[in-house]
Amino acid sequence: MKLKLISIGLLLLMGCSSTRLVSTWKNPDNVIFDAYQVLVVGMIQDDNTRMEFESRFVDALKAQGVNAVRSIDLFDVEFTSSQRSEEELLEVEQQLLDKGFDAILFTKVVGTENRRTFKEHINDVDKMLVRFSNDYLEHQDIYYDPEYYDSFNIYHAETSLYCICVGKEIELIWRGEVDVTEPENINRTIDSYVKVVTKSMGKEDVIFNSKAP
Predict the structure, then answer these.
(1) Which of 166, 164, 159 is nearest to 21 (CA)?
(2) Which of helix, strand or coil describes residue 17?
(3) What pTM was estimated for this model as a whole?
(4) Per-residue pLDDT tens digits of the chain, which is 213 residues long
(5) What domain range is 31 assigned to?
(6) Which of 129, 179, 211, 213 sits between 20 and 30 A of 80, alpha carbons compared?
(7) How far apart are CA 147 and CA 141, in angstroms?
(8) Which CATH number characterizes residue 51's domain?
């Protein structure tokens, strides 16, 4: 029964929520951080998904009064088509500073894991399978039902906020770690991810204050 309850709980978790904030870290030297122009970077291979992700993040920040720009609008196609050196990235940072940017919001997937659960046979509470034949018949599809075991991926993602303030080395201001269960609807998953991250940042007075109207 305990194993069954655990498995049901996993299925409910999968069905109800695909995005979960795992942990956050905030630089203790920055009690409140306000950014006026933020570059939103989604390190995603698929250009369409990257565009959608960055667009929705930009829209969410603009709704809070933050001037945000998609990296896909700033970096040319050539930039992400091959590896870049440290010197090239330092040049990019200086260019951002020259253009008035004071922060970079950087999201990436840092790992993935595969999990496995199984379909449940919900029996009548009063039904006791006291005979081998009954028990066997009730569960024999374990042998041949390809969907009895259900595999799914969990993606571990990070969103980090870096300051590029004048007179300071670029430093980490805030980081949030988020687990995303294999998305069935990419747009809904992006919306959920952006909402989870921006809500957490607001509570911790990062970029915008959660008490602001």
Answers:
(1) 159
(2) coil
(3) 0.75
(4) 333 333 333 333 334 458 999 999 999 887 777 788 999 999 888 889 999 999 999 999 999 888 999 999 988 766 776 777 778 887 888 888 889 898 999 999 888 888 776 655 555 545 555 566 566 666 666 666 666 667 778 899 999 999 887 666 678 899 999 999 877 788 889 999 999 999 999 899 888 654 444
(5) 18-116+151-203
(6) 179
(7) 10
(8) 3.40.50
